[in-house]
Amino acid sequence: MPLRLLLFLFLLTTHPLLAQHPSDAHKIYWNDTLIQGREDYLAAKHNNQHTKPNIIIIMADDLGQTDISLYGSKRISTPNIDAIGLNGVTFQEAYITSPVCSPSRAGLLTGRYQQRFGHELQMSDRYVHNVFEYLAFKLLPAFRPVTPLWRRLYPSDEERMRQGLPPSEITLAEVLKVNGYTTGIVGKWHLGAQDFALACNRGFDYQYGFNEAFTLYMDTEDPAVVNGKVKGQYMDSHQWRTAEGRTGNCAITRNCCEKTDDPDYLTDRLTTEAVNFVSSNKEHPFFLYLPYNAPHAPLQAPADYYAQFAHVEDHIQRTYLAMIKNLDDQIGRLTRTLDSLKLTENTLIFFLSDNGGAAYNGSTDNYPYRGGKLTNFEGGIRVPFMMQWKGSIPSGIRFPYPVSSLDIFTTAASAAHATLPQDRVYDGVNLTDFLPSNLGLPSTDHGPSTTDSPPHTALYWRSGECKAIRMGDWKLSINTLSDINSLYNLTSDPGEQHNLYDEHPEVVKQLSTQLSAWEAQMVKPLWPRVVNYIYKDRLGRQKFSF
Question: Distance between CA 150 and CA 497 in Å, rounded?
């Protein structure tokens, strides 16, 4: 490249009017009143003498609802995951609170809409710095389907260090710990890597895993693993490049400080750690949070599992399915451990995914639902969700009403007879209140009878300029990024193909009023969005930004 052109580009990208600058315009403020309330709650004596069940939350990562055989997948059989629902409850219309990893985990572990405390958008330690970077991301095909946002001012280094689960928030691990539980997390944290946000400082007695959104499952050169790299896609290549060597936030650590270099395939290793935690704490109540990173990219599958899907021609889909099959087998290893230790009937188990499948990398399409991860279409927010508590809740229930991942916090706290603090709003319900109270109820086409009362009047979503509400059969989506508003009847149109916004103004008004009332209770995001995701529907009729 000619020297004059290089000099011109340098001057262009550093000119004050064209460059971007770190700023305190995005300064993060925490709620001091709730920080004090958290400290008071954790310092108080909790004389909880009740008999308590063990509690396990198993969370998959970027796993679509329709990639589970109990939800109708024809591509794969997942008998061990299915068994959790068959031995308890399968929630047919289950939702996460965000279509992307970190915010959804913030809601899950606090039992509160993450918009109440500003953990609304994905965290980032990298922002576009100048016009040259912006245009490169904007124009080059390799960066699609994401596009950068131009900001004259972006968060300073100091403010980026404050991104993470705010210290005002009380996690489920903290609630259970002060109520007599030994607590452990094995897997992906992704709620902040600074001291205030680390899992070890947020109620967990034991930690094994990593802090980033992703990491390698295994050494890429190991012949026992198959690598599924998506050609020509920046997001995928970025993840491979960042995860290489498992350094920084991609490092595997024990107790938040000791770096480990276990050579095992990571899903297997996480299960080994989970089994060891359960076995070591079998004599007293324990809480295990097991957020696997499978089947999140970078896609890597054990070679012997990849061989089981030789009939799948597409390499990316074959790798993805092999990862899910391995995940299912590892969950089976954990549940068999509970059986062998005679802990099953005294253990409340939840299984869910943090958001829908990542359709943008070609691994899945979430059919019949529209969209996927990063979108607030059903494919992005409707997830597999099951609950098992043998001997305490009936088996074989297919629960027909919408439920939320927020309900896990409230259900677990209730099972532990824990008293929650009164200085904050909790948004979940105790799901056991909505199930049959005895095991002898007659069966229906959907399994044993359930109550006729839906757990929630409405469910809500907001990721910056994209928001939605589900109330009864109706779902209203407001997308000011794309200037598209949508109304769908999910009973007759679960695939969200027929926009009824103009045909039912009365429904739009009712849902809009409800959504606005909910938003009035929320706070602004604590940090800005970095990129937009561009979604095109299957027929190419519309393009949405999320």
Answer: 32
